Amino acid sequence: MYAVSLVPRTTSCRLSSAFLCHLSIPLKTLRLHHHYQHQQPHLTSLSFQIRSLRKQIDMAAQGGDSYEEALAALSSLITKRSRADKSNKGDRFELVFDYLKLLDLEEDILKMKVIHVAGTKGKGSTCTFTESIIRNYGFRTGLFTSPHLIDVRERFRLDGVDISEEKFLGYFWWCYNRLKERTNEEIPMPTYFRFLALLAFKIFAAEEVDAAILEVGLGGKFDATNAVQKPVVCGISSLGYDHMEILGDTLGKIAGEKAGIFKLGVPAFTVPQPDEAMRVLEEKASESEVNLQVVQPLTARLLSGQKLGLDGEHQYLNAGLAVSLASTWLQQIGKLEVLSRTQMSILPEQFIKGLATASLQGRAQVVPDQYTESRTSGDLVFYLDGAHSPESMEACAKWFSVAVKGDNQSGSSGHLVNGSAGSSHDKWSNETCQQILLFNCMSVRDPNLLLPHLRNTCAKYGVHFKKALFVPNMSVYHKVGTAADLPENDPQVDLSWQFTLQKVWESLVQSEREGKKDGESNGNSEVFTSLPMAIKWLRDTVHESSSATRFQVLVTGSLHLVGDVLRLIRK
Questions:
Q1: Helices 390-410 and 447-460, interaxial angle, to 10°?
Q2: Neighbouring C-beta atoms of residue 11, cutoff 10 Å
Q3: With b meaning 16 or more CB within 10 Å and e meaning fewer, what string describes 239-266?
Q4: Which run of H or of E encompasses 382?
């Protein structure tokens, strides 16, 4: 019987027409009656739609009216303590299992068909490639990644699309209110990331995804996503030095934390690693009876002429890992026969399409500034990459150098931005292009490691920055916000860290000048009190340039900075 009642109980949440329109279920479905009970059992998808509708209406009855209220409630879970502060009661990992019990998710998480990925760099890209491949085989997917750049809903993708605001609100309030009612002094409310991971588990269980792809937030062993006890397959992307104040100051210690996601008898894959890291991974795998295999970067030949959806040579490494993870899941859960890469001349069509159409903001992303394109003879293009470790900074610098040279030769940036309008000029020469750096990083990072990697790698490819701009992030770490509530300027902002970054940059420039007799190195740098002021300066500079000049701005050092730039230039 498929009758549906649409009489909700009294609730503080309005069931708006926008909410009902967003349910992706035809109105006529709501009028189904008992005559369907005699039809053939091909109505499985219809049954799922009706169950989903019931859940969404029930979810919508749980909490406040506005998205802003949900973000304020979420912000209240952000701890003011340092993530490395071991006295923080929220660091007790066993609490995650208490939360799962309070949310009645214990059985759901055992049934979930999870692909779990840790790593220092490339884990988000690997997860994105993996999800896209499995989705192209027709399976329903859930993808949980971090951090978000513009909107917290980016962290939760269903079938490759960010969760809708209506669904997010329903699931959010269901989890938040239940935890508020059931937590106490001994089991306090979960901290910010733990709540988001729990929310992902709830969403994926309620939406009945076939595959749940989970990116570790930090480390692995004590990460909230590690509540999954029996994943289908695990992956470790490239390892390097990051979050050393938490994970340890050697590659071996860092590898040990990442290997914490290994589970007894569950297959695992990794990419080529430094010897110290690989030794630890192999030891941990042996202890857990894990069959750990090392996969090589994907080759262009296997893609049959297609390009990866994520730009940069380093993405072939992530794509190779994703192919192995997806293949294992498809064989074990999808019951599909997938040849090993050594047996293939090219990848199956679904793999190629999945890899070619994968998308992830803030990773090797190119966005022309629409504002300047319509008003000046010059051109302003942003190259955005959230690199924030020495190794990823080097990969970012290589991508940027190759990208700007390719752009200048092709004469347009349009082909790199999914159909965005390219430049009105037919061709740009290297003489009419200027590269500018827009940079910030967290104070726990070491700019003496990051900036030399960036500058030296670019110089190796013949790319030299005309100017470097240092800015504070607009986003704040104690509040989850939207583009609408970002501050334009804060007169009280502390710029001491930005001046530290500038000093490191200028010392690199000075060293370079001393090594050159002709003094051709460009070392201009400036600290701006806010990001909007830096963007305004860039636009004014383009407008005031006497000749048609392309300004190519590399935005890097922080995913928060990348997200803030995207919010501003898309307003």
A1: 30
A2: 13
A3: bbbbbbebbbeebbebbbbbbbbbbeeb
A4: strand 379-384
- The DSSP secondary-structure symbol of 462 reads T
Q: Are 179 and 189 contacting, i.e. CB atoms less than 8 angstroms apart?
A: yes
Looking up tokens 């220092």 gives 120
Instruction: Give, in order, the Cα–Cα distances in Å from 392 to each of 150, 248, 281, 529, 557.
Output: 22, 19, 21, 27, 10
Helices (H), 4-117: 17-21, 44-60, 67-75, 95-102, 106-111
Q: What is the pLDDT of residue 382?
A: 96
Rounded CA-CA distance 438/380 in Å is 13
The token pair that represents 89 in the structure block: 């009661």
Whether this prediction's pTM lies above 0.85 is answered by no
Quote the pLDDT of residue 38.
Answer: 41
* C-alpha to C-alpha distance for 373 and 381, rounded to whole angstroms: 9
The answer for residues whose C-beta is within 8 angstroms of residue 511's C-beta and 6 or more apart is none
The span from the CA of 2 to the CA of 554, in Å, is 55
**Number of residues assigned to the chain:** 571
Beta bridge partners of 527: 470
pLDDT score for 429: 57
**The two structure tokens encoding residue 369:** 């500034």
3-state secondary structure string across 238-267: ECCCCCHHHHCCCHHHHHHHHHHHCCCCCC
Q: Which of these, 50, 52, 72, 78, lies nearest to 172 by C-alpha position?
A: 72
For residues 479-514, b (16+ Cβ closer than 10 Å) or e, as one string? ebbeeeebeeeeeeeebebbeebbebbeebbeebee
Residues 6 or more apart whose CB falls under 8 angstroms from that of 88 comprise 79, 81, 191
Rounded to the nearest angstrom, the gap between the alpha carbon of residue 24 and the centroid of all alpha carbons in its chain is: 26
Distance of CA 475 to the CA centre of its chain: 16
Question: Which structure tokens are listed for 244?
Answer: 């050393």
The neighbouring-strand residues paired with 546 are none
The residue with greater pLDDT, 240 or 145, is 145
